[in-house]
């Protein structure tokens, strides 16, 4: 099949496989550096000694997300060697069994990575506000994400006929694009809700307006996940719209999907780590007042607005303040 009948590629190559490898590893490295920055922010400033009490479940989940992303990236890289980015006819001659198996596994790890990264964001939000209503809303969001993850994972795992569920290119499968559209729509909706929840906390911070705007911008970056997911859906549509027709060229068209998937996955991880980058941590350190909140980030807490330095008390980074100071 000639390349002029295939869908246009993000990469200006007749065989964009090598470009896919470069793109996915760049995305992975960027996400990894952000996770490392989040972990290092929790270290005491005087010496780089790890104190386990400084870390929480959201930190463990963030590390879990990057581990899952590592596996997903390796699988896609191996899929390139199996024919991703090549013309369908050329890949078919080499055999699609390995290609299908690698692509199928990478889809499952994409689902798990995004779900864990999203859960990290919810847990972070739950440590910021004590309001019963607020926490109830976040718990409901977490339950929704858990249910979505289960449906998403099982739907992806069993998208094709029994005994050949991994055979998503030539196998008999459900309407895959409709399934991905439904699942990714919920993905985007939950990110909108989580972004709104994170931005809402800025109002209780006793910081200058300029710093509030910085924090709003930081929390709002989670919205960037939405266009990344939308682009992924676009390339999925392009790939599936000619399915089993005369111009069906999935191994070539899926190069775009692989890159968009990596971008969306990395964006989910990065968005969960951005609030812990040092400039933002510095903005929040003097922002919490016990007249506003009773459970904070565990940085320097200002007990009353306009307090002098003698009324400041420092806690270990990552600790949780359960009660007001005396």
From TrEMBL:
Keywords (A to Z) from UniProt: Membrane, Transmembrane, Transmembrane helix
Keyword Transmembrane: yes
Pfam family, one: Fung_rhodopsin
Spans through the membrane: 20-40, 60-81, 101-124, 136-158, 188-207, 214-235, 255-277
Domain called Rhodopsin: residue spans: 51-281
The protein's name in its UniProt record: Rhodopsin domain-containing protein
Native source species: Lentithecium fluviatile CBS 122367
